[in-house]
């Protein structure tokens, strides 16, 4: 069996990016010889999963892949000495590092010298004190020695301050050079992997090799850009791709999938759910316990994906394709890949739900005309040619309607006031709770602005689930009358406001409960 000594290039040609990994496909053209032959291809990313390696040959003559494996070699980095072919930036980093080490050594020596001079000055002062106590008088010599020690201490102290300042400057400059190196260059990998194939061919001839495997450290998330221009809305779909697989993806066919291969595919186990009936007690017959609770209004649709923020595929694996070849370097940074774009007619309204927020928000509605499902993700909002903020888009099926909030209006103000009164009727002993909600809506307009603006206000009233509790909207006391009231208790008004106008909207409703109702 013959073995090729020089590796055969095996570039990445197609990538399917999953939620937390990537399925990498490589192709190469081979010129096979008759007999059994061992091929060495690559290099490939060292993070490639060995168990997922698959290789197949396609040719006009019989050829078989007998064995396929990933072989890794570790080459430790050489000492940090500049080579002839190193870049000026790397040489500068090496010079700064050498100068920094020299400055630190100089600083340590000066600190030791100053410590020694301090002990010498202390010994000299002790000698002077002892000599003066014994009656010795050598003032001239003592003065010369003290002056010499003080002069050298001042000199070494000034040198130490200079060295410390230079060391701080070198530390800052070296940090900047290292950050520039991280952005401009990449350290050579210590762990290098190759694919070794053992192939058998009956006759010599050309063949095409296809190798595929899984690689970790790659993921993607959807992102969007919505531009509002009058009554048209343009939505651009993009994929944000991160990858740190150890090799660059250059001009590859990129496929984006929401399949979760890491999760188990076994169906859930069925368990017993026993229902039992029992007679109510006397206390339970006399009273009815009720409670006021919050319910989220939702339509039939996909369930949210737990543990995967930003991705909602409706429980079905979605596949998107990049329309053109894509290049994604292995730098761990976010790279945006355009996927599709469409323009749809937009309907806009200025809406406010004062119970949740006093802000008046411009809400834009449109239809999904992209031809594929829009996954949940962030949206960059553009209005009037300028960036206005960032919102979020929920999962939207093809052809379905979606909503986008284009930010609040600073020229509107809504103030909410509530009142509640409680009364008990004498004959039936029913408890009647009357609630009054007042909404004060104001519009602040600059000079010269004309035309009314319709503000859509939404409030809610409780919805009873038991016959013992009744909820009644007092339309005669509401001012103005609501435009609509849906089955979920959402009350809506369309309030037109002229420039600088103000209006008060009043909502009145009653909750009537029987005497045996408790908890209201």
Number of domains: 4
Q: How many helices does DSSP assign? A: 3
Biggest sheet descriptor: 7 strands, mixed
**How much beta, percentage-wise?**
35-45%
Structural class category: alpha+beta
What is the CA-based Rg, rounded? Answer: 39 Å
Mean pLDDT: 87
End-to-end Cα distance: 88 Å
> Which residues sit in consecutive blocks of at least 5 with pLDDT less than 50?
304-308
Total number of beta strands: 28
Helix content: 10-25%
The 3D shape can be described as extended
Word description of this protein:
With 520 residues, the protein is an alpha+beta fold. The chain has 4 domains: 104 residues; 97 residues, Helix Hairpins, CATH 1.10.287; 144 residues, no CATH class; 107 residues, no CATH class. 19% of the residues lie in helices and 42% in strands. Strands 2, 3, 5, 8, 11, 13 and 14 form a 7-stranded mixed sheet that branches. A 6-stranded mixed sheet has the order 20-17-16-23-26-25, with no helix packed on it. The longest helix has 46 residues. About 1% of the residues have low confidence.
Keywords:
alpha+beta, 520 residues, Helix Hairpins
Topology:
Elements: E1 2-3, E2 12-17, E3 21-32, E4 35-44, E5 54-58, E6 63-74, H1 88-133, H2 139-184, E7 191-201, E8 205-216, E9 218-229, E10 232-243, E11 249-257, H3 282-286, E12 288-289, E13 319-321, E14 326-328, E15 335-345, E16 347-352, E17 361-367, E18 377-383, E19 386-393, E20 401-408, E21 412-424, E22 431-443, E23 453-460, E24 469-473, E25 484-485, E26 490-497, E27 502-513, E28 517-518
Parallel strand pairs: 1-4, 2-11, 9-18, 12-28, 16-23
Antiparallel strand pairs: 2-3, 3-8, 4-7, 5-8, 6-7, 9-10, 10-15, 11-13, 11-14, 16-17, 17-20, 18-19, 21-22, 22-27, 23-26, 24-27, 25-26
């Amino acid at each position: 069996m013959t073995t090729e000594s020089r590796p055969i290039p095996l570039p990445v040609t197609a990538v399917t990016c999953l939620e937390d990994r990537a399925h990498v496909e490589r192709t190469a053209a081979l010129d096979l010889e008759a007999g059994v032959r061992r091929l060495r291809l690559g290099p490939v990313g060292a993070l490639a999963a060995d168990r997922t390696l698959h290789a197949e040959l396609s040719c006009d003559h019989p050829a078989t892949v007998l064995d396929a494996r990933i072989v890794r070699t570790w080459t430790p980095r050489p000492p940090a000495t500049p080579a002839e072919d190193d870049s000026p930036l790397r040489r500068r980093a090496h010079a700064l590092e050498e100068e920094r080490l020299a400055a630190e050594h100089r600083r340590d020596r000066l600190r030791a010298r100053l410590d020694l001079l301090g002990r010498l000055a202390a010994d000299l002062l002790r000698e002077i004190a002892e000599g003066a106590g014994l009656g010795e008088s050598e003032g001239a010599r003592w003065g010369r020695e003290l002056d010499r020690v003080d002069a050298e201490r001042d000199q070494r102290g000034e040198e130490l301050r200079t060295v410390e300042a230079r060391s701080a400057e070198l530390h800052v400059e070296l940090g900047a050079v290292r950050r520039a190196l991280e952005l401009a260059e990449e350290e050579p990998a210590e762990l290098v992997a190759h694919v070794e194939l053992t192939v058998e061919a009956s006759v010599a001839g050309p063949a095409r090799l296809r190798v595929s495997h899984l690689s970790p450290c790659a993921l993607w998330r959807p992102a969007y850009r919505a531009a509002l221009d009058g009554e048209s809305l343009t939505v651009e779909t993009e994929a944000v791709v991160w990858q740190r697989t150890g090799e660059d993806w250059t001009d590859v066919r990129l496929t984006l999938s929401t399949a979760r291969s890491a999760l188990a595919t076994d169906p859930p186990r069925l368990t017993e759910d026993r229902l039992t009936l029992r007679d109510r007690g006397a206390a339970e017959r006399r009273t009815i316990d009720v409670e006021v609770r919050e319910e989220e209004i939702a339509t039939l649709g996909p369930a949210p994906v737990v543990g995967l923020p930003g991705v909602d595929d409706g429980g079905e694996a979605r596949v998107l394709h990049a329309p053109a070849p894509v290049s994604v370097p292995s730098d761990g940074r976010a790279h945006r890949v355009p996927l599709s774009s469409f323009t749809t007619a937009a309907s806009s309204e200025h809406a406010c739900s004062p119970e949740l927020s006093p802000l008046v928000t411009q809400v834009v509605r449109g239809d999904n005309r992209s031809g594929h499902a829009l996954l949940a993700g962030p949206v960059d909002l553009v209005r009037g040619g300028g960036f206005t903020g960032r919102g979020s888009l929920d999962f939207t099926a093809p052809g379905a309607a979606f909503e986008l909030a284009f930010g609040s209006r600073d020229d509107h103000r809504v103030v909410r006031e509530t009142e509640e009164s409680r009364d008990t009727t004498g004959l039936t002993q029913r408890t009647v709770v009357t609630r009054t909600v007042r909404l004060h809506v104001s519009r602040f307009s600059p000079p010269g602005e004309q035309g009314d603006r319709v503000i859509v206000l939404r409030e809610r009233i409780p919805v009873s689930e038991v016959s013992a509790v009744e909820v009644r909207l007092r339309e005669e006391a509401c001012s103005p009358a609501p435009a609509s009231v849906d089955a979920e208790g959402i009350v809506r008004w369309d309030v037109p406001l002229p420039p600088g106008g103000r209006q008060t909207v009043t909502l009145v409703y009653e909750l009537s409960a029987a005497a045996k109702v408790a908890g209201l």
